[in-house]
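lol so apparently i was supposed to do this last week
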Amino acid sequence: MDTSHDDATGHVRSPFDLHGRCAAVTGAGRGIGRAVALGLARAGADLVLLGRPGSSDDTRQAVLAAGGKADVVDLDLGDHDAVARVGAELAASRRIDVVVNNAGVIDRCDAVDVDLADWQRVLDVNLTGLFVLCQQLGRPMVERGHGKIVSIASLLSFQGGIRVASYAASKHAVAGVTKALANEWGPRGVQVNAIAPGYIATDNTTALREDADRSRSILERIPAGRWGDAEDIAGAAVFLSSPAADYVNGHVLVVDGGWMAR
Ligand code: NAP
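anyway here it is w/ NAP bound
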């Protein structure tokens, strides 16, 4: 574990302390990304919020109001040339210690009716955009021999789901990329992990919660007896971003109220 966490007063700082670290978070304007960004800021991290123009401004204001630091950088994860360019500029202009790949989209459709443009859009944002950003921000981490990458995967990194073929394909692939990068970059001091949230009440799951039968059947399977809140994911993100997780690598951490235990 990183022993630089002994501060000047001689007190041993918490292994979850992120003071002095800079974390880049994608899609931090709402839902899980916003909760994770605020959680990282509470743990002491400075933030770079990467998202579509204007989307992260409220989150930035909330971080500043709480005494933290946050900058906003415009980025559409579906535009891979922009991801490569913006990622390279960011990597060259400041030290990024943590990357949280949170941004994601879902397309709910019967498999036989899936339009290939919609299929591609989900893969573009959830998988290829994530990978290109990992390349750009991971390169200097590998060179420095220090860094953490945390991607938001899904229960559909393990399961097939219903009417979400492109999403399940993309999230299985996120788990695969996580393990592949962990294997390559672990020996260079960079830990690459993922979080698989269960059913969380965000815009991503509005359609499920508006379907009374589906919502009830989901709830019946969750041992915690409730849907998750976005804030339920923040602690796991702080953990995997922190020195406490220095020996955790290539792991997909399920945070699901017990769903996978059924
Ligand atoms: P959400 O409220 O729909 O948030 C999605 C986020 O992704 C928004 O900030 C959105 O930004 C951003 N985003 C989408 N497309 C983007 C693009 N092309 N470029 C940049 N940012 C983009 O849903 P959420 O539940 O918080 O989802 C966050 C992550 O958790 C996703 O990866 C999702 O797959 C995953 N997840 C969610 C659940 C759940 O139950 N909610 C479960 C498992 C995994 P805009 O505001 O600009 O659209």
